[in-house]
Write a structure and sequence with these properties.
105 residues; alpha+beta; two-stranded antiparallel sheet; single chain; flat
C-alpha cells in the first residue's frame, strides 16, 4: 500500500519546528496519483486557511464531510451513467438548519 507523508507547516512552525504537523497517511488502493492527492490536500488546506479565522474547527470538519458526500454522489452518478459530472459549481441551495425537519435516529 502506498503512503503519503505530509508535513504541514503553520505560521507557528516558522518560530518553532515543533509546530510542524507530520503525518504519514495510507493511500487508498484505487488512488491514481499520490501527487494529485498531495496537491489537492495542499490546495484545500490553503483555501481553509484563507477563510475567516472565526470559523470553528467543527464547522470546517462539517463542511469537509458534506463536500466529501457530494463528491461521492458525483462519482457514483458518473459510474452509473458512464459520464463525468461537471466539476464547475453553478449554485448551492442551502436551506436554514432551523427549517429542516428533524430526522429520526
Amino acid at each position: 500500500m502506498n503512503r503519503l507523508p505530509l508535513s504541514v507547516h503553520t505560521p507557528k512552525a516558522v518560530q518553532s519546528p515543533k509546530a510542524c504537523l507530520k503525518l504519514d497517511m495510507p493511500l487508498h488502493a484505487f488512488t491514481d496519483s499520490g501527487i494529485h492527492v498531495a496537491q489537492l490536500v495542499g490546495t484545500l488546506l490553503n483555501e481553509i486557511a484563507d477563510v475567516d479565522h472565526e470559523v470553528s474547527h467543527a464547522n470546517i470538519l462539517q463542511a469537509l464531510g458534506i463536500t466529501t458526500a457530494v463528491r461521492m454522489a458525483m462519482a457514483d452518478a458518473s459510474a452509473k451513467t458512464g459520464g463525468d459530472f461537471s466539476l464547475e459549481l453553478l449554485e448551492i441551495d442551502v436551506g436554514s438548519a432551523d427549517e429542516a425537519a428533524p430526522r429520526a435516529a
